[in-house]
C-alpha cells in the first residue's frame, strides 16, 4: 500500500481525490485509509455541510430546511473542497446528481466505489439508517433499505459512471477469488483504488504527451 501510494503521489502531484458512490459504499472508511497512505488530509463533504449549518446534523438539516437547501450547501461545500490540494474527499451519496457539481468534481480525480446493493443494504442496516434521511429512518430494516437503495442506484448509476475511475467490488472479488464481497477488507479496496488511480494517471499522461513521445 505504501509503495503504491508513493507511486501515485508522483503521478498526480497533489490533485484532489473525490470518492463518489452510494450511501454505505465505504467512501469514509476507504477514504481515511487512502489519505493516511498518501499523507493527504481526509475531508468529508457531509461534515463540511454540517459546519455550514452551525453544527446541525444531516438529518436535522433535511428536517429543518428540506433537501433542496441541503443540496445548495452540498454544492457550496464541493466548490470549496475542489480548490484544496492534497486532500481525499468523501462526497455525499447524492453529490453526482446535480450537473453543476461536476464542474467542481472535475477539478480533481473522481473514483466511484461501486458496491452491489444487497451489500450496501447489509452495511447500512448493521449501523442503523437513522443518519441517512433518504432511507426513511431507523425502523424499516434490511428489506426497506434494500428497496430504497435499489431505486436510488438505478436512478444514479449513469451519474456515478461519469467517474474517472470505477472500482467495482464485484470485479475485485472475482479477481481475488473471493466467494463473497464481504471478504474484501477496506485495505484491499484501498490498494485497488491506488492501483487503478496509477493506471488512470499514466494513461492520461500518455494521451496528453506530444505525438512521437
Ligand atoms: N470493506 C468493508 N467491509 C465491511 N464493512 C465495511 C467496508 N467498508 C465500509 N464498511 C462499513 O460499512 C458502513 C458504511 O461505510 P462508510 O461509512 O465508509 O460508507 P460511506 O460511503 O461513507 O457512507 P455515507 O455516504 O452514508 O457517508 C460502515 O459501518 C463501515 O464500517
Ligand atoms: O445519497 C444521498 O443523497 C445522501 C447521502 C449522504 O452522504 C448525505 O449526503 C445525505 O444523507 C444524502
Ligand atoms: Mg461517509
TrEMBL record:
The keyword Cell inner membrane does not apply. Its EC number is 2.7.1.71. It catalyses: shikimate + ATP = 3-phosphoshikimate + ADP + H(+). It is an enzyme of class 2 (transferase). Keywords: Amino-acid biosynthesis, Aromatic amino acid biosynthesis, ATP-binding, Kinase, Nucleotide-binding, Transferase. Pathway: Metabolic intermediate biosynthesis; chorismate biosynthesis; chorismate from D-erythrose 4-phosphate and phosphoenolpyruvate: step 5/7. Belongs to the shikimate kinase family. Catalyzes the specific phosphorylation of the 3-hydroxyl group of shikimic acid using ATP as a cosubstrate. This is shikimate kinase.
Amino acid at each position: 500500500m505504501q509503495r503504491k501510494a508513493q507511486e501515485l503521489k508522483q503521478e498526480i502531484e497533489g490533485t484532489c481525490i473525490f470518492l463518489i458512490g452510494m450511501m454505505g459504499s465505504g467512501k469514509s472508511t476507504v477514504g481515511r485509509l487512502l489519505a493516511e497512505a498518501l499523507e493527504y488530509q481526509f475531508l468529508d463533504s457531509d461534515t463540511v455541510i454540517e459546519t455550514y449549518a452551525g453544527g446541525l446534523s444531516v438529518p436535522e438539516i433535511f428536517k429543518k430546511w428540506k433537501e433542496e437547501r441541503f443540496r445548495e450547501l452540498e454544492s457550496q461545500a464541493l466548490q470549496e473542497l475542489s480548490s484544496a490540494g492534497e486532500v481525499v474527499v468523501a462526497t455525499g451519496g447524492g453529490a453526482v446528481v446535480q450537473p453543476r457539481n461536476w464542474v467542481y468534481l472535475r477539478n480533481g480525480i473522481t473514483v466511484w466505489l461501486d458496491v452491489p446493493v444487497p451489500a450496501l443494504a447489509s452495511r447500512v442496516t448493521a449501523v442503523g439508517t437513522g443518519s441517512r434521511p433518504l432511507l426513511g429512518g431507523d425502523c424499516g430494516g434490511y428489506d426497506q433499505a434494500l428497496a430504497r437503495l435499489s431505486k436510488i442506484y438505478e436512478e444514479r448509476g449513469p451519474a456515478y459512471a461519469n467517474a474517472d475511475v470505477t472500482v467495482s467490488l464485484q470485479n475485485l472479488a472475482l479477481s481475488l477469488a473471493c466467494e463473497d464481497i464481504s471478504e474484501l477488507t477496506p485495505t484491499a479496496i484501498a490498494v485497488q483504488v491506488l492501483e487503478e488511480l496509477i493506471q488512470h494517471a499514466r494513461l492520461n499522461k500518455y494521451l496528453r504527451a506530444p505525438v512521437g513521445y
